[in-house]
Amino acid sequence: MNQFTFKRGLRTTLLIMIAIGLVSMVMTFMGDDPMHTRFWSNILHNSVFFTGIGLLAFFMWSVHITAWSAWNVVFKRLWEAYALFLIPGLILMLIIAAGIWGGWHNLYHWADAESVANDKILQGKSSFLNKSWYTYGTIIVMGLWIFVLLKLRGLSKKEDTAGDMSFKIHHKSRIWAAASLPLIGFGSAVVIWQWVMSVDAHWYSTLFAWYNAASMLVAMLAVTIMMSYYLKSRGYLGLVNTEHLHDLGKYLFAFSIFWAYLWFSQYMLIWYANIGEETIYFKHRLDNYPVLFYGNVIINFALPFLILIRNDSKRKLGIMVFISIVVFLGHWLDFFLMLKPGILHTMHELAAMSGAHIAGHGGFTAGFSLPGFLEFGTMIGFLGFFLYFSFSMLTRAGLVPKNDPYLPESVHHHVE
Question: 314: which residues sit within 8 A by CB, 6+ positions away?
Fold first, then answer.
């Protein structure tokens, strides 16, 4: 079957997931501190994570077009569908930006005018860390991504009816894909610094954007593997065979190692240099979040490395689905560890300035020290929304791009 049908049972399941997320967010809001920091931090966490999955799908799609790669053609419509999530992702990030302008949350220390006035470091970074840059930078960068993405998507769909003109259309796709790569490369660094790194406003790392992108990429590959197996079990993606899934497994294995390389490089260089402004990030997490800190490496490196190092593991359904679920959750926890400690610290700093008392200071804080049921419930809701949107996009084009000039090569793909 080439045309995906979004059946009622699947719709109902995903709507239940979305409902779980909404209930979790309402419960979080009702039991939160006066500024609803846990509520807003959960929205930021999941918005960045799932928008990042869409962005890295766009990146991988563009990379393969630019490189004249053929093996991924039989499932490239999955990456197209994920990439289109950048559109609702922009809306989600603008909701966060609106919260900065409206004073609805205190996710970012630099957004508090009194803090900036009394802090030389925040003053020095204020030309970049300010609500105007956050808002308009997000609009400009993501707007450019979406513009190029829609151009590529239109050309991809046009190939389906182009017949002999498909080569000419594919050549245009290659131009747009090549143009998208520097936009994604430089633009992602800008928004990652704004969205994620600036929750620890006094800290910086030149490797941080790379590290974020690697985490998003592994999560995206895990979703691709799980979605491919699901669609095949429903009679779709008949041209996707063990060879394609084996290569996706190799990607998951390789980029898990790449993520670990970046994790180690960032940690080792900061530890070795022993510069106070840099070491504070890791000291805070080692002292107060040891389970998450060490668990991050075990889940996202040790497990996929040990399980996928065997060649035949990448050809076994059970193993591939299991490790995909593990690393997907692992990289969601990775973003939790990037965001929550800095946000909690900001919450206590601002509370101390105002003379207010926030429960949990210096000890376990629900939703920050470790993710609780409400965090997982919110993630389930966002995941349901992401999948609902992706499945909806899959209905708008054939699952197999029948006139893609590289389709025959992809169909006969074989791993030696």
Answer: 245, 246, 249, 250, 253, 308, 320
pLDDT reading at 140 higher than 90: yes
Residue 352's pLDDT is 76
303 burial class (0-12, 13-18, 19+ CB within 10 angstroms)? Answer: middle
d(CA 118, CA 106): 17
Count of C-beta atoms within a 10 Å radius of residue 306: 11
CB 379 within 8 A of CB 18: no
Q: Is 277 exposed, middle or buried (0-12, 13-18, 19+ CB in 10 A)?
A: exposed
State how far the Cα of 365 lies from the Cα of 183, in Å rounded to an integer: 39
Instruction: Give the rounded distance of the alpha carbon of 82 from its chain centre.
Output: 11
The residue written with tokens 């020290």 in the block is 369
Q: How far apart are CA 274 and CA 245, in angstroms?
A: 43
Distance (Å, rounded) from C-alpha 86 to C-alpha 58? 9
Contacts of 41 (CB under 8 A, 6+ apart): 107, 339, 340, 343, 367, 368
> Phi/psi zone of residue 355: left (φ > 0), alpha (ψ -120 to 50 degrees), beta?
left
Q: What are phi and psi of 377, to 5 degrees?
A: -65, -40
Instruction: Please provide the average confidence, as pLDDT, over all residues in the chain.
Output: 94
Comparing CA positions, the residue from 295, 271, 298, 272 lying closest to residue 282 is 271
pLDDT at 137 over 80: yes
Tell me the pLDDT tens digit for each residue of 224-244.
999 999 999 999 999 999 999
CB-CB neighbours of 310 under 10 Å: 12
Residues 146 and 90 sit within 8 Å (Cβ to Cβ): yes
CB of 56 closer than 8 Å to CB of 217: yes
Let me know if 360 is exposed, middle or buried by CB neighbors in 10 A (0-12, 13-18, 19+).
Answer: middle
**333 contacts 295 by C-beta, under 8 angstroms:** yes
Look up residue 132 and give its amino acid: S
Output the CA–CA distances (angstroms, integers) from residue 122 to 128, 133, 205, 266, in the order listed: 10, 15, 16, 23
Which residues are CB-neighbours of 187 under 8 A, at least 6 positions away?
141, 142, 144, 145
0.85 surpassed by pTM: yes
**Separation between Cα atoms, residue 206 and residue 266, nearest integer Å:** 8
- Residue 251, H or E segment: helix 242-273
Q: How far is CA 79 from CA 148, 171, 376, in A?
A: 15, 19, 25
